[in-house]
Amino acid sequence: MSNPNNSDQAKLRAQQELSKLEGQPQMSEDERHAGNVKRGLTAATHNPNVTDAGKKQARDKLEAMGEKPDQPGD
Protein backbone atom coordinates (compact mmCIF):
# COMPACT_ATOMS: atom_id res chain seq x y z
CA MET A 1 0.00 0.00 0.00
CA SER A 2 2.90 2.36 0.61
CA ASN A 3 4.85 1.27 -2.48
CA PRO A 4 5.25 4.35 -4.70
CA ASN A 5 5.41 2.09 -7.77
CA ASN A 6 1.80 0.97 -7.30
CA SER A 7 -0.93 3.00 -8.93
CA ASP A 8 -3.61 4.71 -6.86
CA GLN A 9 -6.14 2.35 -8.41
CA ALA A 10 -4.15 -0.69 -7.27
CA LYS A 11 -3.84 0.74 -3.77
CA LEU A 12 -7.59 1.38 -3.63
CA ARG A 13 -8.34 -2.15 -4.80
CA ALA A 14 -5.98 -3.62 -2.20
CA GLN A 15 -7.61 -1.54 0.54
CA GLN A 16 -11.07 -2.75 -0.54
CA GLU A 17 -9.95 -6.38 -0.44
CA LEU A 18 -8.42 -5.92 3.01
CA SER A 19 -11.63 -4.34 4.26
CA LYS A 20 -13.64 -7.31 3.02
CA LEU A 21 -11.32 -9.75 4.76
CA GLU A 22 -11.44 -7.84 8.04
CA GLY A 23 -15.22 -8.16 8.14
CA GLN A 24 -15.17 -11.95 7.89
CA PRO A 25 -15.27 -14.05 11.04
CA GLN A 26 -11.93 -15.54 11.99
CA MET A 27 -11.46 -19.14 13.07
CA SER A 28 -10.56 -19.53 16.71
CA GLU A 29 -7.31 -21.20 17.70
CA ASP A 30 -9.27 -24.27 18.87
CA GLU A 31 -11.09 -24.56 15.52
CA ARG A 32 -7.85 -24.24 13.62
CA HIS A 33 -6.19 -26.86 15.86
CA ALA A 34 -9.08 -29.31 15.43
CA GLY A 35 -8.86 -28.92 11.65
CA ASN A 36 -5.13 -29.59 11.71
CA VAL A 37 -5.64 -32.70 13.85
CA LYS A 38 -8.32 -34.03 11.47
CA ARG A 39 -6.09 -33.47 8.45
CA GLY A 40 -3.18 -35.19 10.18
CA LEU A 41 -5.27 -38.21 11.15
CA THR A 42 -6.68 -38.44 7.63
CA ALA A 43 -3.16 -38.31 6.21
CA ALA A 44 -2.13 -41.11 8.57
CA THR A 45 -4.90 -43.34 7.23
CA HIS A 46 -3.49 -42.96 3.70
CA ASN A 47 0.22 -43.13 4.54
CA PRO A 48 1.77 -46.45 3.46
CA ASN A 49 4.41 -46.11 6.21
CA VAL A 50 1.77 -46.22 8.97
CA THR A 51 0.98 -49.65 10.39
CA ASP A 52 -2.50 -51.14 10.10
CA ALA A 53 -2.91 -50.67 13.85
CA GLY A 54 -1.92 -47.02 13.51
CA LYS A 55 -4.38 -46.50 10.67
CA LYS A 56 -7.15 -48.11 12.72
CA GLN A 57 -6.31 -45.87 15.67
CA ALA A 58 -6.42 -42.79 13.41
CA ARG A 59 -9.80 -43.86 11.98
CA ASP A 60 -11.15 -44.43 15.50
CA LYS A 61 -10.05 -40.96 16.58
CA LEU A 62 -11.62 -39.42 13.48
CA GLU A 63 -14.90 -41.18 14.25
CA ALA A 64 -14.74 -39.89 17.83
CA MET A 65 -14.38 -36.38 16.38
CA GLY A 66 -17.54 -36.88 14.32
CA GLU A 67 -15.80 -37.54 11.00
CA LYS A 68 -16.45 -40.41 8.62
CA PRO A 69 -12.98 -41.69 7.72
CA ASP A 70 -12.27 -43.61 4.53
CA GLN A 71 -12.20 -47.34 4.99
CA PRO A 72 -8.88 -49.05 4.36
CA GLY A 73 -8.08 -49.80 0.77
CA ASP A 74 -4.98 -51.85 1.44
Automatic annotation (TrEMBL):
<feature type="compositionally biased region" description="Basic and acidic residues">
    <location>
        <begin position="53"/>
        <end position="74"/>
    </location>
</feature>
<dbReference type="Pfam" id="PF10346">
    <property type="entry name" value="Con-6"/>
</dbReference>
<dbReference type="GO" id="GO:0005737">
    <property type="term" value="C:cytoplasm"/>
</dbReference>
<protein>
    <submittedName>
        <fullName>Conidiation protein Con-6</fullName>
    </submittedName>
</protein>
<feature type="region of interest" description="Disordered">
    <location>
        <begin position="1"/>
        <end position="74"/>
    </location>
</feature>
<dbReference type="InterPro" id="IPR052670">
    <property type="entry name" value="UPF0654_domain"/>
</dbReference>
<dbReference type="InterPro" id="IPR018824">
    <property type="entry name" value="Conidiation-specific_6"/>
</dbReference>
